[in-house]
Amino acid sequence: MLAQLKIKNFAIIDDIAIEFKNGMTTLTGETGSGKSIIIDAIHLLIGERASTDMVRHDKDKAIIEGLFFVANSVIFDTLKEIGIDGDDETLIIKREIAKNGRNICRINGTLVTVAQLKQIGVNLVDIHVQHDTHRLIGTDNYLYILDQFKDTELNNLIVNYQNHLGEYRKLVKEYKTFIKENKKNNELLDLYQYQLTEFKNANLSLEEYEDLSNKRTIISNYDKLYENLTISSSHLKDHILEKFFEASQAMGKIASYEKKYEAFNTVLNDLYYQIEDVTNSIGNELQTLDYDPSELDFIESRLNEYSILKRKYKMEIEELVKYSDELEDRINSINNFDDQIESYKQNIKSKFKICFDEALKIRMKRQKIAKNLKEQVIEQLKDLNLVNATFNIEFNKLDDSVDELNNTLFTDQGFDLIDFHVSFNKGEPAKPLSKTASGGELSRFMLALKTIITKKQNLSTVIFDEIDTGVSGITASAIASKIGTISKDTQVLCITHLAQVAAESDHHYYISKIENNNRTTTNVRLLSQDERIHELAKMMSGSNLTESALQSAKHLITRR
């Protein structure tokens, strides 16, 4: 539940702190007094976007802070994922919105992003504002509503389906890309064949190019190589090798006297054999070193062929070799187009069938959920004085003539499109909700859904902002009773202009505007029993209180 709400410098609110308790709390007051601003503040605590326009005039920042007591394991799991301790079942959410656009969110003192805050908020509080009822009449929202009731089995089905769908979409994309590339390649086939022939005749090889480049360097520098190899060999043979041998021999004679002499002897021996190996290798180099002008001419000629192709294609040798291989693949692809297209089609057909079958499993599971939801909604509508209501959840019909390449059939959630068909009058056929329901009927239908969803989601708090708009009389009493029923299991905050709804609450706050130092600000006051009776009487009869209105208000409260 939401135990405490603090709001500072937010719209016309200067600085207020409201204590909330279990059960149902009503917020009433004149239009524009700040009731909806309080709900807007709670919206920010559960991750809604903030606007700097909401910061109070001449203040640097607005601060909203909420203390929640929670017992929802999903929230604790989410907190753990983002590295926040929530074991004590207490959640403090704080939001700061600065005039300069800076937006700070904290959960239990830890900085979080708005997205992370929303992850928590979606399982913490459900807020129904006035436009939500009208938003209901849109088929895009119906599947989302139905999926609020999905279970582990449906979740697993959707995950499995999405894996196959990803593979299917990738295959279709590859197929379409292949068609485009083949068309382009066909137009350039003559050019590709000419270029490939040129590369084949040139017999390109990265290994040959590097080898020829090395050989040219050696032959071009023959004199310098011969001179310096000769000098190195002479010095090693005449002086160094012999001196290392003698030093090693001398150290060997005393190696047994002490370990460090033995180590010296080992190092000298290793150095002697290493220098001997180098001396022999240099000698071999001198014997094999050769200068052949005709070979140099061949190398220069061959390297020139490479240079011509590099300039012509504006590529390095490695890129030329790669492009040559690609040309071969493109020409083979053109020549084997029919076979490859058939292979693609078969694979796509196979993957399409798997996706279709998996989506069908999802539909069958959803239809079971829909049947259960339908029965629950009808029961709830009866409680809301719609005893003759009928309700059906209609699934879209599937076209028998499917096109395996038309991946628009599938969405990330399957291929289901649903519509809510209702009738609120006896003898009338069920029609789409968007074409049937009046404002009052929509409100009751939404309340019926909210009643069921609230139990399913295990929410801490549910907020109704004038869900009773457009109703009166017996219907208002039915709505009040239903909201009261919800409050038995979940904390409910309710903004209302109906006395019947306000009377149903366990706690009643009156919201008003006051002027202080030429500034308007919101004032929040918890009403006593007598004050509640007077407020309910005013809601029924206006500012001119009558004795009958007071008696009616007293009756509304005492009959709870």
UniProtKB/TrEMBL annotation:
<keyword id="KW-0067">ATP-binding</keyword>
<dbReference type="GO" id="GO:0006281">
    <property type="term" value="P:DNA repair"/>
</dbReference>
<keyword id="KW-0234">DNA repair</keyword>
<keyword id="KW-0227">DNA damage</keyword>
<dbReference type="InterPro" id="IPR027417">
    <property type="entry name" value="P-loop_NTPase"/>
</dbReference>
<dbReference type="GO" id="GO:0006310">
    <property type="term" value="P:DNA recombination"/>
</dbReference>
<dbReference type="GO" id="GO:0016798">
    <property type="term" value="F:hydrolase activity, acting on glycosyl bonds"/>
</dbReference>
<dbReference type="GO" id="GO:0005524">
    <property type="term" value="F:ATP binding"/>
</dbReference>
<dbReference type="InterPro" id="IPR003395">
    <property type="entry name" value="RecF/RecN/SMC_N"/>
</dbReference>
<comment type="function">
    <text>May be involved in recombinational repair of damaged DNA.</text>
</comment>
<dbReference type="Pfam" id="PF02463">
    <property type="entry name" value="SMC_N"/>
</dbReference>
<protein>
    <recommendedName>
        <fullName>DNA repair protein RecN</fullName>
    </recommendedName>
</protein>
<keyword id="KW-0378">Hydrolase</keyword>
<dbReference type="InterPro" id="IPR003593">
    <property type="entry name" value="AAA+_ATPase"/>
</dbReference>
<dbReference type="GO" id="GO:0043590">
    <property type="term" value="C:bacterial nucleoid"/>
</dbReference>
<comment type="similarity">
    <text>Belongs to the RecN family.</text>
</comment>
<feature type="domain" description="AAA+ ATPase">
    <location>
        <begin position="21"/>
        <end position="515"/>
    </location>
</feature>
<keyword id="KW-0326">Glycosidase</keyword>
<dbReference type="GO" id="GO:0009432">
    <property type="term" value="P:SOS response"/>
</dbReference>
<keyword id="KW-0547">Nucleotide-binding</keyword>
<dbReference type="InterPro" id="IPR004604">
    <property type="entry name" value="DNA_recomb/repair_RecN"/>
</dbReference>
